[in-house]
Amino acid sequence: MDVSFEVRHKDLLGRVGRLRVGEKTVETPAFVPVINPVSQVIPAREMKELFGCGIVITNAYVLYRRLRQEALEKGVHRLIDFDGVVMTDSGGYQVLQYGDVEASPVDIALFEEGIGSDIAVPLDKPTGLVRRGRAEKTVEETLANVRATMRVLGPNPRCAWVAPVQGGVYRDLIELCIDEYRTMGFSLYCLGSPTPLMTSYNYKPLAGMITTARLRLGVGPVLHLFGAGHPMLFSLVVALGCDLFDSASYALFALEDRYLVADGTFRLEQLSALPCSCRVCSSTTARELREMPEQERFRVLALHNLSVCFEELSLVRQAVWEGRLFELLEKRARSHPALYEAFRHVCDDERLAEALTRQTPISKRRGLFVYDRLSMRRPEVRRALASLESFKLDADGCDVAVLLNYRATAVRNHSRLLEKVAELVESEDFELLTYGTPYGLVPFSLVNVFPHSQTTFPPSLVRDLEPQLVSEIIRRLKQARFKKIVILDWGRDVYPGFVRGLAAALRQELEAEVVVLRRR
Ligand SMILES: [Zn+2]
């Protein structure tokens, strides 16, 4: 089966792209709903009609045990009545849940080929949350299964085969797994068994696992995450480099009378109104929903939950396209303290920061919203700070530096502004620098360069960062050896007292003469 992947837009490690599998195409990132082949609460065909769903995943092991002959005769697409991309999981998760499978890896693989699966996973041994020794064993077994499977399938298998990466929370095992698969020539990978982490809200190690896998893989291969769970995680898993992720949460939550929203979950009995306008919620009330017969309620809730998942997926795609995925992460991080913890961990991970910065475009369709210290960790800000650091402030050999409130630069006529500054300073020989943004000292020649004038921030952020900003300004000015520093106190101060504080600090720390001039 021919597989190709085209990246069209990227932001952080997330990408909007097109995955071609044989004759079929899937837009990524893709949420891949889990279909129970025995009883579909929402038929796959309906998912396609209602939400444009192009890919689903179903369990080959369940088919093998319960509908083997029918599946082989009809093929999996006819069996589940879906003409999009069908991915089959081999039953690895059932191994985790119910013990050993009554079929060999090769039996299942030949079955997956036999039923015409588009994307297939060899039988793996999910690691789950176990001790080191046990984790090593699952990796060994998974690798042995995959080797045996690929040997039997030969060089031209009918399905696109995915390499199942195991190793649980042990980074080196994940890396070992990936290194082994690389020698086998896989272009699709899936990261296994984070479900125990999901159900215990343990998102930090989950983020670590995805990061490890993506950094080891590089940006080329397509990465699928097994069991992405709640839609509030979608932006995070995409930002860390997952192109596909499956989830059965729409049905599992519905089964427990739980109503999903993008940033949380309500129990049905807690709802007084339905905070959604999907086709379900716009035609019923919370009370009517509660009073529905069980089977109908399950279906209707699953339909709403599914709608929330697809809506969140669209939002994530839009955020990648616009270059605002970080801002979506910041919002979703507030959905749950555990997710916030994972987000902070991601922001502080220096090995990840470099990769995120490398993959994030240099300019964006939209400006940046920067809120707090965490926002300051976003790649555009890091990159801007690094480029300011390499900018020599006294390259022209001027003796005088003029510090101008950044607000005063928001005028159309910059040459008129420069004339006014020259009049006031009574010289044409000065280096003009701006202050008052979270970026510290920004040379006037850069104020219109992305992201400086495209950054929107609350003044309270500058106040929060003041000690750090002032000491950075002092450090930079000391390096530059100006003889005189003129602070132009024009327009509204960044916040009351900022200029006074800055001038006092400069006078104390610099040998240069420091003068504050107000507008005449
Ligand atoms: Zn709804």
Helices and strands, with pairings:
Layout: E1 3-11, E2 14-21, E3 24-28, E4 30-35, H1 44-51, E5 55-59, H2 60-66, H3 68-74, H4 76-80, E6 85-89, H5 92-98, H6 105-114, E7 119-120, H7 132-153, E8 160-165, H8 171-182, E9 188-191, H9 195-199, H10 203-217, E10 222-225, H11 234-239, E11 244-247, H12 249-255, E12 258-261, E13 264-267, H13 286-291, H14 294-322, H15 325-333, H16 337-348, H17 350-359, E14 368-369, H18 379-389, E15 400-405, H19 414-425, E16 430-437, E17 440-443, E18 455-456, H20 459-480, E19 484-489, H21 498-509, E20 513-518
Parallel strand pairs: 4-5, 4-11, 5-6, 6-7, 7-8, 8-9, 9-10, 10-11, 14-18, 15-16, 15-19, 19-20
Antiparallel strand pairs: 1-2, 2-3, 12-13, 16-17
Helix pairs in contact: 6-7, 7-8, 8-10, 10-16, 12-14, 14-15, 15-16, 17-18, 20-21
Residues 276, 278, 280-281, 304, 307 line the site of zinc ion.
| Count of discrete structural domains | 2
CATH level 1 name of the largest domain: Alpha Beta
CATH-level-4 superfamily name of the largest domain: Queuine tRNA-ribosyltransferase-like
Uncertain runs with pLDDT below 50, 5 residues or more? none
The CATH architecture name of the largest domain reads: Alpha-Beta Barrel
CATH topology call of the largest domain: TIM Barrel
* Fraction of helical residues: 40-55%
Unique ligands = zinc ion
Q: With helices defined by DSSP (H or I, 4 residues minimum), what is the helix count?
A: 21
Class per helix and strand makeup:
alpha/beta
Function: Exchanges the guanine residue with 7-cyano-7-deazaguanine (preQ0) at position 15 in the dihydrouridine loop (D-loop) of archaeal tRNAs.
Family: Belongs to the archaeosine tRNA-ribosyltransferase family.
InterPro entries: ArchSynthase1/Queuine_TRR, TGT-like_sf, TgtA, tRNA_ribo_trans-like
Cofactor: Zn(2+)
